[in-house]
Amino acid sequence: MNVRSRRVLLVGYEDQDNLGIRYLSSRLLQQGHHTRIVAFGDDPGPLLRLIQTEHPDVIGFSLIFQYMVPQFARMIRALRDAGVHAHFTIGGHYASFEPEELLRHIPELDSIVRFEGEDTLIEIVEHLDHPSLWKQVPGIAWLDQGQTVLNPPRQGRTHIDDFPEPDRRDIDYRRQDLPTASVLASRGCPWKCSFCSIITFYEANGTTGRRRRTPVNVVDEVEYLVRERGVKLILFQDDDFLAGGTEAKAWAKAVAGEIVHRKLEEEMRWKIACRSDEIRADLLAPLVAAGLCHVYMGVEGGDDASLTALNKHLKPAVHLHAGKILRELNVSFDFGFMLLEPWSTLQTARNNMEFLRLFTEDGWAVAGFCRTLPYVGTPIERRLREERRLNGSSLEAEYRFLDTRVDLLWDFCLMAFEGRNFGTHATWNVLRGLLFDTHLDMPGRRRDPDRDAAARALVQASNGVMLDVLESAIELIESGEAQTLEHHELVNLARFARTEDQSIRRQLMAMERTGESAYELLFR
User: Fold this and answer.
1) 342 partner at 20 to 30 Å CA-CA among 89, 125, 360, 522?
2) What are the beta bridge partners of residue 338?
3) Rounded distance, CA 166 to CA 118, Å?
4) With the C-alpha atoms ordered 143, 134, 71, 42, is the resulting torsion angle positive or negative?
5) What are the structural domain ranges in the chain?
6) How far apart are CA 381 and CA 387, in angstroms?
7) How far, in Å, are 185, 242, 254, 261, 279 from residue 258 at the CA level?
8) How far is CA 89 from the centre of its chain?
């Protein structure tokens, strides 16, 4: 069958290059189709004007975050109302796990690509003229007279070296202050954390465990980005760069060895994510020698019961030991942490708070936290449904804690730490960026020890205020003295926390404005 070239517009939220959408684009280009990548925005006007100019046959939407479904629904509805007749398709974790719910929210969609989509999208595009054929494509969902049809799943590829490198034509890295690119060296994760849908996603894709690209293939992409595109910082977006036992550790060392063999460590630095029990000095040392400068650790909890509920199979002492090793290797790090999970008590909250003190008391990392969210496809979501504790649809599911005092504690945290812990522009996130920036040491960008010390002092102060306030709130609630959010001492605590956070923000702004030594600025 002769397949004619199609025009495909790919729309997605731009977050660290959005490699998912870029792999789709490169696969379509490989097959001779024309693609264009567009950043998602709330205003449909610019996208509509582009559509009227480009006349795409297919518009694919990349839904990374399930909380963005309402925004995507408004955008897609506006495009249909404006007379756009292209084939609309969408993909992502939420779309894969809840196609029926998503089609209820966005009936204007023609199809949903479930799980890995490179080959599925190709088949949709190439059968576009024949609805009877594209509706038989494995791995999709679609509406038939208001009823959701789930086609048989597609078996994912075992060898991911076969995929072309992500399409980065629209990115000018050299215009960035610190040219930064994302790379995916593997897909999948062997761990079964109860709050995470990654393993469930890949099981449904028929590809359990972790599929790794060959070290040479990975470093080929890194070398291209560094030497042809001017990139100075590589963010490896692997769910866990070290997962997979002895074989995976040897693979990571081989990647590092290939980087050193090509002398790339003289031109760039790189970052990975992993578990704390994978942090070993003998494993990390060769990676650091190859330019590893930052590690994101999936800590998640510092209390035994919480770590069990999260199915982490770890003890708090392991996290503390990992932090010690990274400090000794002079590697910066940050970490994910959930103060509360659905079965938390005031005691587990207190234990988590005390752990955060130990883990971050020197200002090496920023203390921050959230609570566990019941994302679709996760064991926690299934368990909460079995316990009849989830209210609302999968899109808007909410739960309360088993102890109402824990609900009160969480409500207090939202009141006291709204600007500090939550949101893209939260102080916690800004401080993380500051620590990374001041600790980074690379050719052409040498670390200023005074500025690094000032940043750590600022982080230490911010951590201390937050944890002191949190401890006081736990004591007030635990004693029974504070039973509502309106209790005057809780209100005063929250007011104090917000005032102190504003002081930290002012110092952050001053560090950005001044050309003086940051250490002198903070301590004169």
Assistant:
1) 360
2) 370
3) 11
4) negative
5) 7-150
6) 10
7) 13, 16, 6, 5, 21
8) 23
Supply the pTM of this predicted model.
0.94
**Rounded Cα–Cα distance for residues 22 and 24 (Å):** 5
What's the average pLDDT block by block, 10 residues per block, for the chain (524 residues)? Answer: 86 89 98 96 95 97 92 97 98 96 97 97 96 97 96 95 96 94 97 95 91 98 98 97 97 98 98 98 98 98 98 97 98 97 98 98 97 95 95 88 98 97 91 94 90 95 98 98 97 98 93 50 34
Dihedral angle sign, alpha carbons of residues 306, 312, 315, 319: negative
Q: Angle 449-478/404-416 helices, nearest 10 degrees?
A: 140
Helix (H, G, I), strand (E, B) or coil at 60: strand
SS3 467: helix
Report the amino acid identity of residue 126: E
DSSP 398-448: B---SSHHHHHHHHHHHHHSHHHHSSTT-HHHHHHHHHHHHH--BTTB---
Pairwise CA distance, residues 241 & 184, whole Å: 10
Please, how many CA atoms are within 13 Å of residue 324, restricted to the half-sphere of its CB? 8
- Closest by CA to 523, choosing from 453, 473, 468, is 453
Residue linked to tokens 């990654």: 198
Which contiguous run of DSSP H or E holds residue 133?
helix 131-134
Structure tokens at 50: 């582009």
Give the CATH superfamily of 7-150. Answer: Cobalamin-binding domain (3.40.50.280)
For 117, residues 6+ apart whose C-beta sits below 8 A from its C-beta are: 20, 24, 91, 139
Please choose, from the candidates 423, 406, 309, the residue with its C-alpha nearest in 3D space to the C-alpha of residue 368: 423
